[in-house]
Amino acid sequence: MSGPATTPGGGSVRLRFDIGYDGTDFAGWARQISQRTVCEVVETALSTVLRVPVRLTVAGRTDAGVHATGQVAHADIPVSALDTRSIDGDPGRLVGRLAKMLPDDVRVKQAASVSDHFDARFSALRRHYRYRLSDAVFGAEPVLARTTAAWRRPLDVEAMNAASSALVGLNDFAAFCRRREGATTIRDLQRFSWSRDADGVLIGEVSADAFCWSMVRSLVGAVASVGDGRRDVDWCRALLGERERSAKVPVAEARGLCLVGVDYPEAHELAARNAITRDVRVATTEGAQGCCGDQ
To answer: How does it assemble (predicted)?
Structure first.
């Protein structure tokens, strides 16, 4: 098993950060000029505390307005940066330091040294998202409105589950993705199901190896169109045969979506997983099939 990442002479250590945020007032995860983003806020805080530039690699580049309770990122940090009185070589102490500096809508919840083979993006086996959707006549409950989307028609959960099941599996989700240069729209959708909570809010659970840009919100919009009776399951299934983004698929609101977890293999399997994932990325880039980007 590999230990924490170090340069020759023990100069750096790889740290994993588990992060949560309310995405309402962010323009997404990725840095953007003149925009407030999660990456920029967290990197700035880490750089200030550690007194060295910090650049994060993330598991899921969430869009504007999308939330996270289970985001994962990593960075390589000089060992000397952790050798301070307040941190004393223990990355876990960064959590308390950052809590004093970060705004209320973002938190680093855990920080720990990891194997040099750990890569927040390429080591990931699957990402898990949750979508909250209210079909109440009045919309979303006000105190939950930042994290719950509204649908203006009554929804049939059984019909939504039937439509969702038709989409599960290894498929080309081009109809649900905004196209980007460089990679494929083929994804392995491993779970897509719906239920109502005690307050009547619909909860969608969505898991896949990776997601294209806007894919989850498009999946929700498509099956909700079946749930409200305007479309049927066959229409939803037929979308898998399309090879371009479909204008027929509504994109659900960002505020209902939350990245709740990322799965990784055991430490001794990380290198093999990275090799598999990187090979896929290289192959699709060379094929120029058009990339939607991982969420």
So the answer is: Homodimer.
